[in-house]
Amino acid sequence: MFVVGLTGGIGSGKSTVADLFAEQGIALVDADIVARQVVEPGTPGLTALVAHFGADILSADGSLDRAALRSRIFGAEQARQWVNDLLHPLIRSKMAQQLAAAQSPYVLWVVPLLIENDLYRQCDRVLVVDAHEHQQRSRVLARDSRADADAIMARQMPRDERLKYADHIVDNSGDVEQVKAQVQLLHRRYLSEAAQKRL
Fold first, then answer.
1. Sign of the CA dihedral 83, 85, 88, 93?
2. pLDDT tens, residue by residue, 51-92
3. Binding site membership for ATP: which residues?
4. Rounded to whole angstroms, how far apart are CA atoms 171 and 130?
5. 1-26+106-199, superfamily in CATH?
């Protein structure tokens, strides 16, 4: 399978770009979605979290109350590490299953920390979605007015450093038509490169 790893800073517009590829019939494997799937009711992930932290991390409907879990691990490095040690292997395993099962000519692997977690090494191409930092900040605040956009951005790899890893870049600082045009060009390129790989 030809794997295109898609990443970018928070508020860069990764989801917008990923959706445009999906409209072309390309399968998506999204790390954020998988992270929610591995803690759905009835999963080993949620069962282990409840056994460790107690049932008060559950919502009334039996699903994980993410805010409750965050409050339990906030500032508690050992607890946060325990959660990471539990969930990261589950997430990676499920992503590997989904990548292997993808039926499209190539697959788009959407991972916010693709570079930071060294997952880019498993990709045939790295696609970085880029936007000006003031745009990233305003997009984050539009989604969550309480978010500390500067603190979140400071924890991520610097924009200039991230771009060094890119095989291709989608500039998401313009309007959606400009972004669509970039995606269509890249889509044709990836179709051709994926076909070459299969030869």
1. negative
2. 999 999 999 999 999 989 988 888 888 999 999 999 999 999
3. 11-16
4. 5
5. P-loop containing nucleotide triphosphate hydrolases (3.40.50.300)
Cβ atoms of 4 and 196 closer than 8 Å: no
Which residue numbers belong to the known binding site? Answer: 11-16
Residue range 90-148, pLDDT digits in tens: 999 999 999 999 999 999 999 999 999 999 999 999 999 998 888 877 887 777 666 67
Give this prediction's pTM. 0.89
Chain position carrying tokens 């946060």: 80
The residue ranges of every structural domain in the chain are 1-26+106-199, 39-103
DSSP string, 91-126: HHHHHHHHHHH--SSSEEEE-TTTTTTTGGGG-SEE
